[in-house]
């Protein structure tokens, strides 16, 4: 039987999702816990890959288990896994759907703050910046859904069969004080470090060291900029994964935490 497992993780202590023998990774930690529970190796396939220190507020992997279990697997997994990885749901699937190849849309959020805050450390990227040109940055973001080939904003474009990404939406948000920024982008797929490279270019535009026309010229020519500086990894979240047959709401909304949104759910006892 194939199962989809819905999880979230804080990636700060991990060298990304993908299993690697010599470094700590999310996939390896989960497979180890599953092996302990089922007393035999369990291979899992994730919905994508995240870079070192990148988070996922929504992530799916699939696994095949031969016999049904008679215990609460969500509870047991969460007891074994470290606190920075949480299992939300385990969903039996018909046939052999694939967590990675069947996803039709992925959304990422990038969070940035411009003042030192110990409570945002590791959850958002800290940049000591002032006076960013939000209008120019917004103009650059508006260009993204108009282009399909993102070869220019990828670290190793030649390793892909193609570099087409169908960006369905992209937006830029800022808080009232201009101290916190949120960049959101949705596409059918993303290339290596693509979002962090775009975010790095947007920051150059905000600081006035790169023009919107220069930014667009790379999208048109598909030529990688001479100097690319990817934005810090810890501000990036894989925040939504959608399938034709599965579209689950988020269990944790990191944006509310980072924005310190007013919580009206409390009542005085």
UniProtKB/TrEMBL annotation:
UniProt catalytic activity: uridine(38/39/40) in tRNA = pseudouridine(38/39/40) in tRNA
UniProt GO BP: tRNA pseudouridine synthesis
Example of a GO MF term: tRNA pseudouridine(38-40) synthase activity
EC number: 5.4.99.12
Keywords: Isomerase, tRNA processing
Binding residue positions for substrate: 108
Superkingdom of the source species: Bacteria
Record: active site: 51
Keyword Hydrolase part of the UniProt annotation: no
Keyword tRNA processing found: yes
Domain Pseudouridine synthase I TruA alpha/beta as annotated: residue spans: 148-244
HAMAP family, A to Z: TruA
Protein family per UniProt: Belongs to the tRNA pseudouridine synthase TruA family.
Known partners and oligomeric status: Homodimer.
Function recorded in the entry: Formation of pseudouridine at positions 38, 39 and 40 in the anticodon stem and loop of transfer RNAs.
Protein name, entry field: tRNA pseudouridine synthase A
UniProt source species: Pedobacter westerhofensis
Gene behind this protein: truA
């Amino acid at each position: 039987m194939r199962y989809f497992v819905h999880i979230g993780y804080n990636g700060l202590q991990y060298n990304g999702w993908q299993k690697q023998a010599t470094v700590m990774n999310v996939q390896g930690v989960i497979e180890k816990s599953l092996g302990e529970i089922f007393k035999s190796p369990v291979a899992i396939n994730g919905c994508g890959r995240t870079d070192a220190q990148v988070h996922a507020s929504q992530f799916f992997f699939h696994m095949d288990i031969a016999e049904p279990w008679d215990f609460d697997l969500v509870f047991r997994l969460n007891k074994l896994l470290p606190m920075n990885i949480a299992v939300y749901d385990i969903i039996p699937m018909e046939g052999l759907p694939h967590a990675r190849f069947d996803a039709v849309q992925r959304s990422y959020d990038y969070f940035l703050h411009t003042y030192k805050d110990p409570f945002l450390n590791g959850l958002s990227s800290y940049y000591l910046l002032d006076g960013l040109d939000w209008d120019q940055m917004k103009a650059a973001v508006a260009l993204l859904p108009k282009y399909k080939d993102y070869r220019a904003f990828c670290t190793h474009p030649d390793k892909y069969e193609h570099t087409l990404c169908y960006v369905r939406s992209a937006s830029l948000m800022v808080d009232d004080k201009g101290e916190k920024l949120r960049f959101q982008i949705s596409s059918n797929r993303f290339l290596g470090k693509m979002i962090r490279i775009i975010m790095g270019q947007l920051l150059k535009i905000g600081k006035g060291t790169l023009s919107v026309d220069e930014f667009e010229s790379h999208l048109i020519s598909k030529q990688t900029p001479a100097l690319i500086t990817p934005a810090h990894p810890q501000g990036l979240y894989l925040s939504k994964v959608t399938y034709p047959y599965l579209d689950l709401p988020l269990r944790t909304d990191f944006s509310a935490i980072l924005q310190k949104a007013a919580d009206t759910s409390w009542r005085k006892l």
